[in-house]
Predict the structure.
Amino acid sequence: MAKIATRYLEIDPWRIIEKGFHPERNQVSESIFSLANEFMGVRGFLEEGFSGKSLQGIYYNGIYEWGEEERASYKGIIGRTHYLVNGLNWLKTRIFIDGKTLDIGQEKIRDFERVLDLRSGTLTRSLTLINDFGEISFTFIRFLSMRHCNRGYQRVIIASDYPAEMEISFGLDFDTKHWGRPGRWQAEFGAGGISVLGRTESTGQFLAAAAEIQSSLPYEIYKTEKEIGARYRFKLQGETVFDRKVSIFADRQGEKREELLLAAEADLQKSPGFSEALVAAKAYWEDFWQRTDVEIEGDPENQQGIRFCIYHLQQTYHGFDPGNNIGAKGLTGEAYSGHAFWDTETYCLPFYLFNNLSAARDLLIFRYRTLPEARKRARELDCEGACYPIATLNGHEACSLWQHASLQLQPSTGVAYGIYHYYRVSKDNEFLKDYGFEMLVEISRFLLSRGQWNREGKFGYYCVMGPDEFQMMVHHNSYTNYLAKRTFLFTLEVRDLLKDNDKYEQIIEKLGIGEDFFRKIKTAAAQMLLLYDPETELFEQHLGYFELPHIDIGSIPVTDFPLYNNWSYDRIYRNDMIKQPDVLMFLFLFASDFPLSVKKANYEFYEPRCIHESSLSPSVHSILAAEIGKKDEALAFFEFATRLDLDDYNRNAEEGLHLTSIAAAWMNIVYGFGGLRSDGACLSLAPQIPAIWKRYAFKINYRGKNIRVEVTKDEVKLSSDDEKPATLLLYGKEIILRDEYRAELRK
């Protein structure tokens, strides 16, 4: 892989540490040191302001703006996008010392340190300012409540060794910028105290916030057009502390203008102060890590990396609101406009399936809630049923690139796969009855209407784009065809499962389908065209792929990355270079369907052609490399995945973290080295251990049973905190796990 690490952070098992200020990497640090709690996300920016490069972003899940409306030239191409908008800055702090604004980009400072503590969820930043009169030290601490997700906290500690004239203000500010341009928030203030209500311009959504600053010093309230806050003027010698707490509420429907501000003010009054809330935050994270930690002994870089990934997964989504989804950048930046993609069901869902099953269910319910928009999108594409969008916040298609929005069927088959995977793990029949079956039928209707029959009587898909986005308008992409086939088969399986249930008749009557529909999808599944050669055991990625000109990806200079920025668009499509796993992707998703020899043949053919331009790519390659015995390659890909943002491999961490790649890193250790497979009838494990590791361990919850998997150089130990039996496969052998099971490690 022609990508290299840029390392400037300290290695520590539980903390992310920046020692010394790196102004040229400040925006990268802002992404890495982000905090979130699913409701809101706060980049790790300097709250007192900074004249250098900075993206001072605070985002609120589901609060978005419409883009400018444009007349679409052709049917099926969207005329209006939407995007997650930069919202209320409740951390705004301005500090004046002896009449001069504090801006560490312009000052002489020492002892700068920025620390994200993964065990407490706190971001702490400290520095010492040196001027002609003496020294002043600053410590800034912030965290978000994970249980009461509308609450945020900040502490500012200032100490001076001389009598400094100080002015400090703490604001609630709606005058924020988005994509570097002024935002369009409207603001009005509460009747008393520090409270404000903001309204988005195009969507009419509301954010209400109330704040309280705890200090022994007197203050005055100030207001500007879009900001309200408290201002302190005092002489400082010694130390003083300011604690800020905020309560923020959102109304996505824009219907609760008066109620929302009252709710924020009332919640502020009953919320605990900084110190008490910090104790609760530490307890939350201690409990979380007790259940979810991944331990690696002998590899400190990857130990830090995997914990960083798990931490950000929990911050981004934990089932706070089933109206939320997981954006590709989470709540850490403005790239991808806050949109969720098909990565949610294929890459993110497994973490929640085995750590927070109710949150996994909620992720799928988001897709059920947006089923009306998916139906509308199918009609726009001259199809039936439901076509899920390639990019969305609210269920509407947000991608204006027709080649992605109109040609990629992965979101729809991804939702179907998510339902399939959820059911395989949970056996939740009620979910299938209430939500899953209806979605499966509508997705199958879309796939049936979008597919076509060739002259030999085979069914498949023409003019599509598979997961490899370097090939478009291709015929019979193997991933697309295989996922469609499995969607049809699973829909039939669920039909048989629910057929005797009262709800079944209600659903098919509601959808206006009969047995003829099920006969059609059964025939389409049976006649699906799959480009497989039993002699070579290769799947051709799409019709004609094997005839494409070959390019040696190792010859591409590192300075050419990212390719989208440095190669003309059409140049990317004129060779057999692959952006991310395509054939290998469905071999992973349906691992139980394929023998090891097929996985090995396809890995060895396609891996040398993959440039890993997508952050989703390395983990799937690592998982398959581990399975086929390429242990060194598996470890190399794993490190790329766990430290993708920490070491800024893709040179774009400043735009926000790669949240779905972070989810893939968890899969990487559990599905890769742990050998977990969850697509079959029974959960299976086949652990191995990289040569440089001494030991590793991870935990999963499977059908209510907490299971710990510990692997050493010689042994696999499965243990549980209860004696409730669970049937598993270990190295292909069925075992009944109660409290503990030991086996020799297969090498």
